[in-house]
Amino acid sequence: MDTERVIATFVEYFQDRGHRRITGSDLLPPPQDPVLFTTSGMHPLTPYLEGRSHPSGGRLVNVQRCLRTTDLDEVGDTTHLTVFEMLGTWSLGDYDGSQSIAWGHDLLVDGFGVDPKLLHATVFGGDQDAGPDTASLRTWEERGVPVELTTRENWWSNGPTGPCGPDSEIFIWTGDTPPRSTPMGDERWVEVWNHVMMRYRRGDDGTLGPLPRPNVDTGLGLERLAAVLQGKRSVFEIDLFEPWMRTVPSLWPLEKPSLRLVVDHVRSAIVVIGDGVPPSNTGRGYVLRRLIRRVLTTLWEADPSRTLGDLPGELFQHTLGHFGQSRLPGEVREVLLDEERRFTRLLERGRRVLSQPRFSHGLDEEDYHYLHDTHGLPRDLVRGLRGGSPG
Ligand code: SER
Fold first, then answer.
1. Ligand 1 site, CB within 6 A
2. Which pTM was predicted?
């Protein structure tokens, strides 16, 4: 089942159950939102989760591109991506969490053909702020799906303030042996779908209060599910990444984790630029800058003559086309190349400055400040030039 088919199956299933499809937004959350990028399908819906009525009604479905910087260190493994897509459903004061879980389970097993014996759920077991999610626990038990109870792992919040609540996550076993252990105990349980019983709001003072009406917010990782359904060991092997995995290894021979990092970060950078964010020293632009610099540092480790200018146009077209972005591939490529030139100049300056005798010993805080303020050399770059990781 290719990813387009996965999306269509998901959307149609929920449309048949009264959900209206809404258009996913770009990676930039609404201005009042506490996060830099859209990290989940619910961000663009925050005002509606907080009580406003949605013009498309109380049952919604969509596909939302997301970006998570919290997972940056995990990129290179088989499941984490910086930019990924989330298939989402929402009940805005409509059906409850048990109904959502029941539909989710049915869709995975009957719609996508996942072997029910390969499923495991986790459920919120309660803490000092909120009681255990007994309704979700009962629903899974009735369906014969094993459950692991946790606390922090099963609490979803939209940043430090805003809508939040207990969640129930669905994991699929991806090991070669029959399933063993539990999701928290074995990484071969891969989380694919989260159902959040969003009934609280965390206020500015940190206290938890009820939302005007309870909602259910779910998010299913498109690439992870596609990998399972396509029998692939990693998200990088699914159809969506085919042009990348066909072209990049012949351009730049890299070890597997580095190849994945390069593919993930360049693709993510294209999407971020496609959404109108330029590289800069703060906020979103800084995240973009870090992605590009990380790619270049990885590429240049083995061969400093490598350049992003070698990337085939097909990769820009494929990515911008997939995400429905209107920026021209040539423009996006130029932003990448500009940033590459800037980084090259910065490294040259850094090497020149750091070769001065006064820096031949260990650097102290004063040195770092001087290098930054006088020469524009950030601390992580200086560390990289002196043999550490530039981060
Ligand atoms: N907001 C939840 C998550 O991101 C469900 O979409 O996991």
1. 40-42, 88, 156, 194, 196, 217-219
2. 0.92
